[in-house]
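A favour, since you know our structure tokens better than I do. It will help me judge whether the discrete encoding reads sensibly. The space below this message is yours for that.
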Amino acid sequence: FPVTIAITGSDTTGTGSILNPFKTISRAINASTTSDTIYVRGGTYTPGNKIYVTRSGTAADWYVISGYPGETAIVNGSLSPKTHYLSGTFERDNRDYVRITNLVIEHAAVGGISLRTTSGDCTYIRIDNCSILNSSSFAFKSQGSGNDHIWFEYNLVHDSHNNWSGLGAGILSEEAISLSSTTYFYVNHNTILTLS
């Protein structure tokens, strides 16, 4: 079922409904189940940590995190950890059939979206129709020999790798979009502008 968050919502008294939304994406993820859709209402959200996607979908019914139709949902990643070169505002590890769409992800302290393989592989992941802006290091990174069927399409990537957050050696990436040891990936119809 759809789970909704809004800047006027509450993680304490909210239920995730359209009339009584949660306040944070992390709370909505924790309350959701397999193949749910999370709708992020318009406004700017600044999470105090990374947003760790801990749910999966199925081949017939993907798990989706989406901006609410007709509204602009902005996720500001300036408070995300800067401890690892794979750190992202959104991170996924050992998840399948997940889609992130129609979001603005801006001002990431390291990266915008990271697919890691610490405890397992990421398969069938789709990132589309997002704007990933002003990332200190990368916009999107997939690293792991088991990651496969990754789509990155119809996105705007603007001003990545500018190191606004003062990343040290070994953390700052060299790419805006990076797919390392990833099998079956599709990078199509993206716009990439002003790379520092």
